[in-house]
Each structure stands twice: as C-alpha cells, then as structure tokens.
C-alpha cells in the first residue's frame, strides 16, 4: 500500500474505512504494518492536515494479461469518481481538485481526471497531494512507470488504489 505517508487526514480515514470494508468483504488479510498505521491514524485523529485530492477515472485500455483482457467499463468509472469527488468536497479538511473550475453536480464530466500520464500530471500540477486511482492498475500503467509523475513523490502525500487487476 502506498498511501499512508500522511497520517491523520480525513481522506486517509475515509480510505482506510474503505480498505477495511473491502478486505473484510473479499476475505483478504491486511499486513500487520498497515493495521498499525490505521490504528495510529485513528488515535492521532486530532491532527488536521489539508488534503488536495484528485480522483482518476479509467481512460486507458487495460493490457491483455495471461491471454485475458478485462473489458473497459463504459465511462471508465467516471460515475463513481464523480460521487467520490462530490462527497470529498463535503469534508472540511479535503479539497477535491477537479479538471473544471466548478463542475456541475448534475453531470459526470469535470469531476475526475483521466488515468493517462497527461491527466495525472494535470492533477499534480493543480496541487494534488493525494491521487485516488478509481481505475484498474497494471504493470505498465503511468502510475507505475512514469518518471515525470515520480518527480512529484515528495509533494504528494499518498497514492490510493481503489481497484486493482
């Protein structure tokens, strides 16, 4: 897991709750070090940091893996990404960054960034400290391979993986 370098934010708490729920649902076990981080985060929750969160949607076609290609969801998870961004706006210690100045709550477009290198760099250049990858990750994904994106590692607090292949 890559996102727990900034402890105490509401965003980290939100994602840790999601992570705990998903691991419970899928019967996966969390590493002991991650459980320790989550415990510390809840016990130190008086620390208030501002998170600048950017949500990614699936714009890239996933590669063929072992002869199987996971079909791209129409819209690339923009629907759930818009809901995540809209709801993050309601948390006072989080600023949800969006590609548009003031996205329309009645529309899916404008709330999320594409998971391309250009889209991720757009989010990082807008000041994202947290990237929520509401997409499918794979070995050749720009989050895994881009040196340019890697240059932002000291200014970005964390990377959150919501869906993985």
- Tell me the radius of gyration: 16 Å
Low-pLDDT ranges: 1-9, 158-165
SSE series: HHEHEEHEHHE
Basic shape? globular
Helix content: 25-40%
* Derived structural class: alpha/beta
Annotation keywords:
165 residues; Rossmann fold; five-stranded parallel β-sheet; 17% strand; disordered C terminus
What does this protein look like?
The protein is of the alpha/beta class and 165 residues long. The chain has one domain (49-164): 3-Layer(aba) Sandwich (Rossmann fold), CATH 3.40.50. 35% of the residues lie in helices and 17% in strands. Strands 1, 2, 3, 4 and 5 form a five-stranded parallel sheet that branches. It is globular.
SSE layout:
Blueprint: H1 10-26, H2 32-43, E1 51-57, H3 78-88, E2 94-97, E3 113-114, H4 117-125, E4 130-137, H5 142-145, H6 147-150, E5 158-164
Parallel strand pairs: 1-2, 1-3, 1-4, 4-5
Describe the structure concisely for a colleague.
The chain has helices at 10-26, 32-43, 78-88, 117-125, 142-145, 147-150; strands at 51-57, 94-97, 113-114, 130-137, 158-164.
């Amino acid at each position: 897991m890559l996102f727990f370098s900034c402890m105490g934010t509401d965003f980290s708490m939100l994602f840790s709750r999601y992570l705990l729920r998903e691991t419970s649902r899928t019967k996966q076990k969390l590493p002991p070090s991650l459980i320790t981080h989550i415990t510390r985060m809840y016990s130190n929750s008086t620390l208030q940091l501002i998170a600048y969160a950017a949500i990614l949607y699936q714009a890239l076609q996933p590669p063929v893996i072992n002869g199987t290609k996971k079909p791209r969801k129409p819209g690339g998870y923009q629907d759930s990404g818009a809901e995540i961004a809209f709801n993050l706006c309601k948390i006072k210690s989080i600023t949800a960054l969006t590609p548009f100045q003031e996205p329309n709550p009645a529309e899916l477009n404008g709330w999320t960034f594409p998971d391309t290198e250009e889209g991720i760099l757009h989010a990082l250049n807008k000041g994202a400290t947290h990237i929520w990858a509401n997409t499918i990750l794979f070995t050749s994904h720009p989050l895994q391979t881009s040196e340019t994106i890697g240059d932002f590692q000291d200014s970005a607090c964390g990377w959150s993986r919501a869906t993985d292949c």
